[in-house]
């Protein structure tokens, strides 16, 4: 069971292990937050996370079997990170991107003076 959610270091590259482990760790409080806020998708995500890996608890598991449901860990993990950023007052990425695009499309005019 542990190897499905937290793959061993010797099986895959270290950055895969850290990425998958971090997304799994963040998904747990993210799911709790989603349940508290009564998000409609929460029960689907939780159900899939409980049912899909059952066969891999019994037979040999490999990190490649985790990839089809990796998004199920990333969704609540991203939900948690988004909530934490909102709590510390970080502006949403969409706002920062729209500001950057607007200033690159309509830059403030610069006036060049000639000395003649």
Rg of Cα set = 22 Å
Could you name the ranges where pLDDT drops below 50 across 5 or more consecutive residues?
none
Indicate the overall shape.
Answer: flat
Rounded to the nearest angstrom, the distance between the terminal CA atoms is: 79 Å
Order of helices and strands: HHHHHH
Strand percent estimate: under 5%
Largest sheet: none
The SS-based structural class is mainly alpha
- How many alpha or pi helices? 6
- Total strands: the figure is 0
Tally of individual domains: 1
Word description of this protein:
The chain has 116 residues and is mainly alpha-helical. The chain has one domain. It contains 6 helices and no strands. Helix 2 crosses helix 5 (70-87). The chain starts with a helix and ends in an 11-residue tail after the last helix.
Summarize the structure.
The chain has 6 helices and no strands. It is mainly alpha-helical.
Write a concise keyword list for the protein shown above.
mainly alpha, 63% helix
